[in-house]
Amino acid sequence: MARILIVDDEVHVVGALRRLLRREGFSIEVALNGEEALEKLATFPADVVISDFRMRGMNGLELLARVLSIAPKAVRVLISGHADLSGGSQSGIISHFISKPWDDDRLIADVRALLDGQGSVTPGP
């Protein structure tokens, strides 16, 4: 079972993603900020880290850069309604970008494709 760490400072977003991904059979942990996420990674070896871009303290791009250095095999997904980073990989930091609001079916398909080793998947509309 794939392990996914969800990081967002909005509790309702974390809850929605947790429910969606648990229904698909993934093992889920959540964190409400970047520092908490790094602490969770010490005991929860995530296969995928899904992080919001805009968070208090450490933003999602900064977090995913740290994830790359401590867990380089983890797939790093940035999710945001405020930034469009779908055009580039941000120097290899981001494996994939998802816009808020997301489409549930597309998000699940993208996560599965990334886990299957297909690398970066085509961004949605």
Automatic annotation (TrEMBL):
Lineage, highest ranks first:
Bacteria, Pseudomonadati, Myxococcota, Myxococcia, Myxococcales
Q: Which UniProt keywords apply?
A: Phosphoprotein
Q: Which CDD domains match?
A: REC_HupR-like (cd17569)
Which PANTHER family does the record cross-reference, listed alphabetically? RESPONSE REGULATORY DOMAIN-CONTAINING PROTEIN, STRESS RESPONSE REGULATOR PROTEIN 1
Name listed for the protein in its UniProt record: Response regulator
Q: Which organism is it from?
A: Archangium minus
Q: Which Pfam families match?
A: Response_reg
**Occurrences of domain Response regulatory (ranges):** 3-115
**Membrane-crossing residue ranges in chain numbering:** none
Instruction: Enumerate the InterPro entries for this protein.
Output: Bact_response_regulator, CheY-like_superfamily, Sig_transdc_resp-reg_receiver
Q: Which residues carry this modification: 4-aspartylphosphate?
A: D52
User: Where does the signal peptide begin and end?
Assistant: none
